[in-house]
Amino acid sequence: xxxxxxxxxxxxxxxxxxxxxxxxxxxxxxxxxxxxxxxxxxxxxxxxxxxxxxxxxxxxxxxxxxxxxxxxxxxxxxxxxxxxxxxxxxxxxxxxxxxxxxxxxxxxxxxxxxxxxxxxxxxxxxxxxxxxxxxxxxxxxxxxxxxxxxxxxxxxxxxxxxxxxxxxxxxxxxxxxxxxxxxxxxxxxxxxxxxxxxxxxxx
Length: 203
Hints:
The protein is 31% helix and 20% strand. By secondary structure, it is of the alpha/beta class.
């Protein structure tokens, strides 16, 4: 997980999957201290925390992962552009297992001026991953609404059905964006990442 914040997801993950482990990369150790003090974050042998920049971690890790969950884009004002580029996405692709996936939380619209960052990031993932999907969280039919959008990139080419026996999970899966995403924004690279400009359009 890239971005620890209040550690709500890691705690829930460890509770639901008692055999699993999770690594959390959180740049600010003070955030972790606050999570321990106020949000009941407890140490666990199944939880490893790295206090460093997410891109630095991606550049040097030798680990292999089933899922990379990115929640470092939750702020409009301090979005780490170095995690958005093709070079960063390539690092993620490389450390995933064959059936691995990236799940990324982005606050954006899909279409129009307010969707420029989303379309840039979507194009960047599409340049490397064989399958990339979008799941608008609040309103799956409103392309111009700024909302949480979950980007899912699959390393496998196996066809997905996006149906599940769990009613709650299946409800989220039905938010799949089925319309075309305009390919009008170039991919992001370490040499071309006008992320702040795009985010300014969003807000």
